Amino acid sequence: MADHRFRPEIEVLSAADAARRRHWSDADKIRIVEESFLGHRQVSATARRHGVSRSLLTIWRRQYRDGAVGSDAGPAFIPLTLSPGPPAAMPAAAPVAGRDTADMQLEIVLRNGRRLLVPSTVGPEVLARLLPVLDDR
Questions:
Q1: Three-state DSSP class for 79?
Q2: What is the CA radius of gyration of the chain?
Q3: In whole angstroms, what is the distance from residue 121 CA to residue 90 CA?
Q4: What letter does residue 16 receive in the DSSP assignment?
Q5: Are 54 and 44 contacting, i.e. CB atoms less than 8 angstroms apart?
Q6: What does the domain layout of the chain look like in residue ranges?
Q7: From CA 73, how far away is CA 66, in angstroms rounded?
Q8: Cα→Cα distances 136→24, 112, 117, Å
């Protein structure tokens, strides 16, 4: 005789079966963050591609900008010595058609995220005094 009673199958799940948190190396974080900077609106797509949540990738991007990810993730200043003698004659840059060289500006991006716009005619002495004040790490 057949047994017609309903017996549901039960599956027991335990926490030991779940995947543990992944630990990302600094090199992997830097690679993923730099990939997310490549195009317009690439944060979500990059996060999906690597199986990372968008919020975690946003945290990594902030840490990357602040220089907290990796040992030397961002650009750094190098020591520079100027000789006391007269400066060597520098070749004149070719003028840009329709622009006066006094109109041109240089953009300097510091490790702390600050941007400095200076005219192209600014002297190195002025920059040497200004940059340490702005780059307060």
A1: coil
A2: 28
A3: 14
A4: G
A5: yes
A6: 23-66, 101-134
A7: 9
A8: 29, 8, 17
| Cα distance between residue 79 and residue 76, in whole Å | 10
Of 131, 110, 111, 115, give the one whose Cα is nearest residue 70. Answer: 111
d(CA 77, CA 108): 11
d(CA 110, CA 26): 21
d(CA 68, CA 82) in angstroms, rounded, equals: 32
Question: What are the pLDDT digits (tens) for 59-102?
Answer: 999 998 888 876 554 455 666 666 676 655 555 555 555 555 55
Report the C-alpha gap between 122 and 102 in whole angstroms: 10
- Name the nearest CA neighbour of 63 among 19, 17, 32: 32
The rounded distance, in Å, linking the Cα atoms of 107 and 116 is 6
Residues in the chain: 137
Q: How far is CA 64 from CA 68, 70, 94, 108, 115, in A?
A: 6, 8, 37, 18, 16
Please report how the helices 54-66 and 26-36 are oriented relative to each other, as an axis angle in degrees rounded to 10: 100
The answer on pLDDT for 52 being more than 50 is yes
* Amino acid letter for position 26: D
